[in-house]
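#data-curation
PF: Archiving a pair of folding outputs for the training set. Convention for this channel: one message per protein, sequence first, structure tokens after, nothing in between. First:
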Amino acid sequence: MTTHTETTPLLTIEFNGAIAVVGINRAAKRNALNDPLVHALRHCFETLPAEIKAVVLHGNGGHFCAGLDLSEMRERDTSEGMYHSRMWHHAFERVQFGRVPVVALLHGAVIGGGLELASAAHIRVAESSAFYGLPEGQRGLFVGGGGSVRISRLIGVAAMTDMMLTGRVLSAQEGHAAGITQYLVEDGAGMAKAMELAQRIANNAPMTNYGVMHVLPRIADQSIQDGMVTESLMAAVAGSDPDTKGRLAEFLDQKKHKVQRNV
């Protein structure tokens, strides 16, 4: 297993065999998102080495991401604001619809744009220190990084409405119960759990992972009958992939030998 680390002022990237561990590297700013960091995330996910099969995304220091860096905000007219939001969309789409599945490890603040980024991942593991908020409503803003689409699908429109209108903050336990995360662990145990899950994902057939990442969410947006046809097409593609055929042959061979030993 080969391991090496690349460190920049914005990201730390550790390549550990088939897993890339990507750390947001603005701990002094609670890993708040500014435009250079959003661009760096997009570039990272667009240029992952071919041997990487899964990513663990986390925040260095005490927080995952405290959202938009308001100290670097500047006044924009309507068209500039729209293009800025679309820039975030394009970057976070590289997380959700990139080449490999992403496990987000959440701790401390997961606020605003940080929650939008986390919602673009495929699996979310929270440590008990995590807390979630959407303070845009109290700041005269509206989510602009895809949160109205992704977060509302995780926790429902009513729960997201509550968070945005009232400023309600959810604890790690409340966020887990609402559907933000799939796994909840004690403080300090998150990286081990995230790496365990990433390793399982990396061992899957690549075409199956692709189907889960790219096709499953689109089926969810289709009508029942359209979804059934799309499912059939994806099942045929996955089943005919050489990697899948090799895995099935190996499984059947092992099963055959097990039966023979038990006879």
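PF: Second:
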Amino acid sequence: MPKLGYLLPTRERVMENQPETGSLLALAERAEALGFDSIWVGDSVTARPRHDPLTLLAAVAARTRRAELGTAVLLPALRNPVLLAHQVATLDRIAEGRLILGIGIAADMPAIRREFEATGVPFDKRVGRMNEAMRLCRALWSGKPIDWEGLWTVKQGTVGPTPHRPGGPPIWFGGGLPAGRQRTGRLYDGWFPNLPTPEEYPVQMEEVRAAARAAGRDPKAITAAMYLTLAIDDDAARADARINSYLEHYYNVPAAGMRARQRAFAGPAAKAAAWIESYANAGVGHVMLRFAGDHERHLEVASRIRRDLGW
């Protein structure tokens, strides 16, 4: 049975000049009470300012008991991996093994290039930095002293505590392009794109699994996930206007461009249910929903959709 997740509106709250965390924590608690399987937080420092995801998820972990908690998606290349390994291990301890580390490399956009420059990281080196950072984190999560020579130097280094789960949390990669699918199959535990249509998804997921087989990994062990954006409203025109406005303000680019780069739905609940189900039928095992505002109502509607689908 597919799992259903929910993205907290951290970016939106900062944009609305409402950065207080109480309402975000209340939304997390409400999502868990409504039966959502996971709660997610996005990441950006200067390109799309919002709350730090690892810090906020620590608070969410303390306020929830059942739901998985994840980053959608974290940018490891912006962070020192030794410090990141320590933070993630501590967070996974607070969450008692409920953490999923969703990661990505970020799209090539002017604001994101400026973000990398501001944090002292070469944008064109971000893929190699991310992959090495994740290997180093996993080595440190073993709990054994390690020596490391590469972009970072570690001599007999350990971090404590180790994560709740031996070896650390599962790492899902958020890239939807061919190179990202190959990377996921070779290195990571889940595929978490926002680009493919329901028709494209099974073909592209098979590319991920083929890359896993070629790397000597178990292809069935890779989680198939999907990141979707929705504006649910019985008035289809109003829903369409809402999602266009949402995407334009969120990314500061024309909505048409963003709707070509990620999957988004606008319309009534019945059609939303059919759209979500089409991804499950395509093989997606974990669907994460981002709502275009009006979160309390959207949570209730999505919860009813979940029950109607029998998830």
